[in-house]
Queue: 2 jobs
Job 1
Amino acid sequence: MTTAETVAPQGLSAAADVPTGVHIDGAWSDPGRSFEVTDPATGLVIARMADAGADETRAALDAAVRAQQDWAHWAPRARADLFHHAHALLRERRERFARVMTAESGKPLSESRAEFDLSAGFFLWYAEQITHLHGTWAHGSNGGYRVVTTHQPVGPCLLITPWNFPLLMSARKAGAALAAGCTVVMKTAQETPLTGALFTQTLVDAGFPAGVVNLLHTTRSATVSETALADRRLRKISFTGSTGVGSLLLQQAAPNVVNASMELGGDGPFLVLDDADVDLAVEHALICKFRNAGQACVAANRIILHEAIADEFTEKFVAGARELRVGNGFDEATEVGPIISGRQRDRVVDLVDRFRGIGADVLTGGRPAPGDGYFYEPTVMALASRDHELCTEELFAPLAALYRVASVREALDFANDTTYGLAAYLFTRDLDRAVSIAEHLEFGMVGINRGIMADPVASFGGVKASGLGREGGPDGIHEFLEPKYLAITVDESKDGLR
């Protein structure tokens, strides 16, 4: 592992001129309460943001409800043109977005730029979907009427985004909802509100009408969600975060039967079989595990190695982890940034101690890395046993856990032995084998010989405790649409040709 030199606190300049208030009904305002946003690479406060509560939540929902009917009835081409304009404006601000993301999340600039490109791609994808939402026409089964099916926006939506991919989650959720004709109330994560504010301002500058896009920041997430979900005018919640919080939100959504999409936790198995291209597997495992300092729901959580290639993979993977450059994301050489907060880093320290306690062999790392911020060394551990509950816990950290298996069946059984079902990864040179195993993996997404799967054209989401619904792809926009069936009486005895 290489540690980068200290970089000047560029987060202070990156945060300048980003709106710090809440955005309700086309205007920025300050409710009179605020909280600090900290650069995790330096520990410095880079902004103070408006702290919304129940009153601001009700006001934002009021605005979304007032704007819903007009927005829903915009002509598809007009809405698509607005999306294309917003996409162009986003592209103009690429470097600004990247620097804001790096300032508040700590991720390297290279990762922030990559996140921006993917996020902008989602907005372009939805722009091109708007004019291609078609219904169906059919004859009634017994004649005498026609069956017409169309789609309508579900209505005002609450979108709750996490801190680990602040722009991607905002663009993916808001892009789909707005394209479908829904108005939105977005709630950012407390750790990364600046990205959401810059995103909202860009949509406002592009011409989205007042009330269509509303934004809240808060230290009282439970107050905001409970207030919104208790209001029967809210018709949709889309949440990305932990399974525990998602389950609670589903309970709160139940009384008013609020439509819900949930992208929750993951326990991603990364299977490397005996016939795998080991160099390729190592390359993708390093990315899949240590991107965003391991703070990703689709990260490789359990690296499962067939004993035939385990030694070779381990040697190369450990060497690669040691070479990763840890430091401030504003240093262009940085490959692994800080953990998002001191509290989260303390959690990583505790995780490593717990793994040591069950006999894990630390092959590299295992300590906080030097620096003023919340850095932790890329860590690789080998485990002889997989019977402990730790072995299926979501790590969400720059911590790789390696496990050996003696057969493909053993690898598959261990991979599926989890309550989660978001993403899995499989490396083998045999396509027939890959298809067969992938069909038996109990996960919503499977990467075959690749460790990154997010793409605007793909339906992103999981099964089991990893969530409900899909984001992106042809399915993404339909999460925000309700089918409507029209039965039209037709007097077939009449000669319509006369």
Note: The first helix runs from residue 11 to 14.
Job 2
Amino acid sequence: MKTITVNKLVKEFKLEVLAGKEKLDQEITKPHTHRPGLEFIGYFEFFPMERVQILGKKEITYLQQLNEAERRKRIGNIVNYHPPCFIVTAGQSGLTYLKLFCAEENIPLLRTTEDTSDFIAKADAYLTRVMAPEIAIHGVCINVFGIGILLRGESGVGKSEIAHTLIGRGHRLVADDIVVLKKLSHRTILGTHNEKNKEFLALRSIGLLNVVRVYGRKAFQEETRITLDIKLTKWEKDSLNNELEVEEETTDYLDVPVPHIEIQLQPGRDVAGLIEAAANNWYLQQQGYSAAEDFLSRIEENDS
């Protein structure tokens, strides 16, 4: 299971540390935040204590309206579970009682000026991304017309060279050689680099290229959702599928199915152009359009 420290969250969102500085190395193990509303009134049956606890205006206003004894009881009940940290949103003040409790129990108390709903959305998205299950595979990841494509094939088949051609046509490199795949949900796989290969493209006979230095910022993208898996294979005579519409195949990555096609290589074949066509065709299919169905309907109309 992947984890991150509270300190990494502090740095990412530039959070103010109000208490518990000694425990910023505390690990966060769950990729979602929680607002402890029901817990403040004494209901703990489903309390996700491993999550980052968010205290918005509702929670802080409720606590401030309690008398001192009741407030101590309500806060103490939650603090005793030792969540990884508390984050107060909207820059709220008057937190002396919270500071004391968190200091006593050595729990980080943090504050942001962002509104509660905005911060929760950003924090949940960030935690989901950085804590997502991941694998590293050999290939090239590139964004074509806004569509994330994973290029695979045997070493030396020409994946990087084809990616270079696509970059020259205005598309964006995400990762070359090693692609990190992250599972964000049961339907979403994110492709990214491993930091070491960020912005680099390795070309045989040329060497390493930094695509940002050579082609500018437009040539590189940090990450992309993988929507097409394309395998580049050697040309085999009479093996191409020439049917009107190829039956959809998928490849599973971290139990997420990704549409898969195979493109055979042959000298003189515009593989980069075929990849662009595949991307555009996939997009049209998501919009409900089928070229094969359109073609057959025209034939039926002419025959009638």
Note: The two ends are 62 Å apart (CA to CA).
